[in-house]
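Thought: the user wants the 3D structure for the chain below. I'll pass the sequence to the structure tool as-is, report back what it returns, then summarize two notable features.
Action: structure_tool
Action Input:
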Amino acid sequence: MSIPASPRTGIECLRKPISFILAFSWLAFAFVLMPQGFGQGWYLAIELLGFLLLIVAALGRLWAYAFIGGRKNQELCMDGPYSLCRNPLYFFSLIGISGAGLALQSVMLFAVAVAGFLIYYHYVIRAEERRLLTLFGDAFTAYCREVPRFWPRIHKLAMPEIVSLPTKLFTRTLSEVFWFLAAIVIIEVIENGKLAQWWPTVSTPLW
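Observation:
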């Protein structure tokens, strides 16, 4: 028997549009800021690290969706990535935006993205937890005692033998994960545009 859905709070309903606005504003700065030494030396190393993190984020979110898809707000998911932390989708999103900041070769953009994400999603997660407590009661309280909110405990992975995901949700999941991989191409376009001076840029310190 399905559990009646609990109404989402304002911060939950606005999560996607606010995230889009913040991401768009952050990307606008990424177009015009060019650190001194851009495209040289250790900047190339952090770019490659950023690309690797974007791939990890895409695979991680796909993994998390495979477990939560079709179960969200209907039953409490506590296995797979949800046995490592209570918010694996947000954790892998953080890895993704960290990767984007590093791939853009800007420590400043990286720091702003990480700080902004952690501050904003702290309130989003707290709001979601209040709703989940209403839905699942003591079971969610026990889950919170056992599993950390955000930073994974990698030594207690619980994996079921079978995971099922409805076709429609799987297709939507692939479309969302696609953008983490497409970011690699977008970042390369931005990098080439800066180096070729396709548009005006602002030089910043090494960081």
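Final Answer: Structure generated. The chain has one domain: 10-202. The mean pLDDT is 86.
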